[in-house]
Specification:
heterodimer; A: about 150 residues; alpha+beta; five-stranded antiparallel β-sheet; 4 helices; B: about 110 residues; alpha/beta; six-stranded mixed β-sheet; 6 strands; about 40% helix
Chain lengths: ~150, ~110
């Protein structure tokens, strides 16, 4: 993404999550996404951000998370969340089993699954020491989520 | 997020209001666990005013549900709406818990 895109750089800390979701909501407003998309956007940003906070950097090592967005066309928002932590491509994760019996359910493991379900597209690249995860969300993807 | 607990005969109803995210899901889990540790076997979650839940929240529901199951109890969910209902359906957790349209319907099921 070119440098002209809005950019937020925050500490990889749970306390920064609200700043990240608020920043991404600015993108939703710029793209003119309807309000029923905003919850989806919050969720996707939270899932990706929390994964970075929990796994990207070694314990005790401060790190940063960068969030950028652009509006490829009205009604479509593209957001990139980047970190300089250990190389990690969440797209390589296998789809979780989702049995209907509580006894057979795993605890956790639903974050990346939700991200996939709630976005129009999701791509990852490793770029000069950065993990860059980019997703697109639109009114259409919100309406068809989970189908 | 705020949690209001009400004892109703053999059941405890926890009304969860607001947003459950990575920052506060643990508080929900602890509130439920405290009731379970006191011997409550029937927990009903009133989700009519829960507007948002992320995977950390879903994790808490599964943890509490499994804990109750081990103790011969049941976690019942009621009055899910909007995004929260959609998230439970997408993750098929709507099949893993008894789901009710209202707290009254959940109470009647105990």
């Amino acid at each position: 993404m070119p440098d002209a895109n809005p950019r937020l750089s925050v500490a990889a800390d749970l306390a920064s999550l609200e700043s990240a979701t608020e920043f991404a909501r600015g993108g939703a407003a710029a793209a003119g996404l309807p309000e029923n998309c905003w919850g989806h956007l919050d969720l996707v940003v939270e899932e990706i951000f929390v994964n970075v906070v929990r796994y990207a950097y070694s314990a005790g090592t401060p790190g940063v998370v960068e969030v950028t967005y652009c509006v490829p066309r009205p009604g479509l928002l593209s957001v990139e969340i980047a970190d300089q932590g250990a190389e990690y491509n969440p797209l390589t994760l296998r789809e979780p089993n989702l049995p209907g019996s509580l006894k057979e359910r795993s605890v956790g493991g639903l974050g990346v699954f939700l991200v996939r379900q709630l976005t129009e597209s999701l791509d990852y690249r490793r770029d000069r020491g950065w993990n860059r995860l980019r997703f697109r969300i639109s009114a259409e993807s919100a309406a068809s989520a989970g189908q | 997020m705020t949690i209001e607990s009400t004892q109703n005969g053999p059941s405890v109803v926890l009304k969860v209001i607001g947003r459950m995210d990575a920052g506060n899901a643990q508080a929900f889990e602890e509130a439920c666990t405290a009731w379970v540790n006191q011997g409550t076997k029937n927990l009903i979650i009133d989700m009519s005013e829960l507007a948002y839940v992320s995977s950390m929240g879903l994790r808490a529901f599964v943890v509490v549900g499994k804990l109750l199951q081990e103790k011969g109890g049941t976690l019942r969910l009621s009055a899910l709406t909007g995004l929260v209902k959609q998230v439970f359906e997408i993750t098929r957790l709507s099949n893993a818990f008894p789901m009710h349209d209202s707290v009254d319907a959940a109470l009647a099921d105990v």
